[in-house]
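Throughout this review, each integer encodes one residue's backbone shape. One record appears below.

===
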Amino acid sequence: MKSVHQTFRRAAMSTRAGSFAQTVVKTTATASLRSSLGALWGILVLVVWSGRLWAQQEAVHSLQGAHRLTLGLGHTQLAGSFEGEGIQSVPLASWSLDYDYGLSPHWGVGLQFEWLLESFVVEASTGAQALERAYPLSIIPVGLYRFDEHWTAVAGVGTEVSHGEYLTLTRLGIEFGAPVSKQWEFGAALVWDNKWNYYNSWGLAFTVSRIFSHSQD
């Protein structure tokens, strides 16, 4: 009789443990869903607010004579041959900081920095020794051509540095900017980088820019 009683107790405890585990899973899933919905709601509110403020201000930023400082948080996708993994695509987080100056209403020059927040080992397409890239920093002088008040094309040649090893790179990109006042701009940038003889990458960043014009309109 005592053995039967213990068996029932074990079964009841097992049932309660299973119920608790299911509750934890459900709670975690619910929290994750709420967090995702909250993030989406925040993005929606930001977009709507930016659009309304932009419409009210009707701000248009002239490239000529203006200095622009841009901070970006992005996602960079690497495509190349990685040690022990072969040819594949690797996603990484990245930060960017850009400075540019307008030479005319359409043309400008700038300097772009991008920092990849990860380490990896990449193999050379020429058969040279593989390189370890630890949080590599790219520095690219660029030229800019602004089509209108929103769209700007970017092109340049620079370098990526990590552990004293330098890779020459070519950058092509397109930027979109939405003015929210005469000094501030929200936007996005899509860039493609070719690290010569090693790997390619493309990146998408969401950006915020501060514009300093000589006249401070």
Remarks:
- The chain has two domains: 1-58, 66-213.
- The chain has a mean pLDDT of 75.
- The beta strands are 66-82, 86-102, 107-116, 119-122, 131-134, 137-146, 151-162, 165-179, 184-195, 199-213.
- Residues 66-213 form a domain with the Porin fold (CATH 2.40.160.20).
